[in-house]
Amino acid sequence: MISEIYIADVFSSGLPVVDVRSPGEFEKGHIPGAFNIPLFSNDERAHVGTVYKQESKEAAIAVGYTYVNPKLENFITESLKVAPFGKIIVHCWRGGMRSRSFAEHLNENGFKEVKIIIGGYKSFRNFVLDELGKPMPLKVLGGYTGSGKTYILEELKKMGEQVVDLEGLAHHKGSAFGAIGQKAQPSVEQFENDLHNELKKLNLNQPVWVEDESHNIGRVKIPMQFFSQMREAMLYFVDISKEERAKFLVEEYAVLDKQMLEKSIVQIKKRLGGLNTKRAVEDLKSGNFYEVALILLQYYDKAYLKGMNTRKSDRVIKIPLPDTNHFENAKIIKKESL
Predict the structure, then answer these.
(1) Last residue of a domain, one of 95, 129, 163
(2) How far is Cα 310 from Cα 314, in angstroms, rounded to an integer?
(3) Are residues 118 and 205 in the same domain?
(4) pLDDT tens digit sequence for 185-212
(5) Fewest CB atoms within 10 A around its CB: which of 98, 179, 183, 212?
(6) Cα atoms in the 13 Å half-sphere on the side-chain side of 333
(7) Which of 170-174, 175-179, 198-202 has the highest mean pLDDT?
(8) 92 belongs to the catalytic site
(9) Per-residue pLDDT tens over the stretch 221-237
């Protein structure tokens, strides 16, 4: 049986979701947890589109069938791997011909329940952007570079607090060195999808902790409707000395590849200054990581302070801490935020 389903009902359905768009479309952005069983490869989709524009819809459909027909048996095989009980949700870009043809094929070959998402992936994107704009009780953890904010958030989560790890979702730690040792970043679109996926697991009537970030995390942008709420939320600023933070950064980065570290230092040469860049590179090569960290923190502290000063003063709570012991610091922050 074939039926339709609204995107808002997909998440509670418990059914596996199959995205029949091309691999390129899927990589750009997809419903988290969806499986990609593409009707067309990237090249095939491009060819069909060209025929549609240059000739006609009918000619494009004919070309499409020549690509799809040899794959029909494989579609069933792959779909059964995803949905062995014969119940499945399918979608394409707008819930059009691709998803309907795929659904009919599954229905004709023994699938008990095939649902098509009304409006397809486009309706999902609209839903995500609407949801990200809804008011949320955010709490923002701030602090200069090297304060161990990510570790503090991990501890807060263990203590029962709701936490969204923006840098984890972005596969980037937010600085010029943030991509080192990380997986490739998702597209901006997929980052938004993944952020929504994390938020829908939470009780948004209760506080949600995030780390203070600029609008960009590497190449990824925090959606503006969510970022605006971060900027208006209460900021809990952990105030730790530069010397303690430098020690923390040594532990974090001294184990990484020196060439990659040097490349990242050179990337911020204009902001760091020629002399500081030269000193930092020389210290790096000689293994004096602590001095490298102190030099870099001169720049990063100024940059962070500039951003923090744009916040309303009554929305910032400073919490002095003696060191970067995230176990103890998380306890203190939780108490201060009550």
Answers:
(1) 129
(2) 12
(3) no
(4) 999 999 999 999 999 999 999 999 999 9
(5) 183
(6) 34
(7) 198-202
(8) yes
(9) 999 999 999 999 999 99
Least confident of 3-17, 108-122, 258-272, 311-325: 258-272
Same domain, residue pair 80 and 144: no
> 257-277: per-residue pLDDT in tens?
899 999 999 999 988 899 999
Closest CA to 21 of 90, 119, 105: 90
If asked whether residues 80 and 184 sit together in one domain, one would say: no
Answer yes or no: do 155 and 57 share one domain: no
One domain, residues 122 and 93 = yes
CA pair distance 25, 93, nearest whole angstrom? 9
Q: What is the pLDDT of residues 1-20, one digit of tens each?
A: 999 999 999 999 999 999 99
Instruction: Say yes or no: 48 and 191 in one domain.
Output: no
Pair 276, 157 in one domain? yes
What is the domain-level CATH number for residue 32? 3.40.250.10
Residue the block writes with tokens 């060209």: 50
- Tell me the residue range of the domain where 96 lies: 2-129
**Following DSSP, what letter does each residue of 139-190 receive, concatenated?**
EEEEE-TTS-HHHHHHHHHHTT-EE--HHHHHTS-SSTTTTTTPPPPPPHHH
Active-site hit among 92, 163, 199, 230? 92
- DSSP structure string for 59-125: HHHHHHHHHHGGGHHHHHHHHHHH-TTSEEEEE-SSSSHHHHHHHHHHHHTT-SEEEEETTHHHHHH
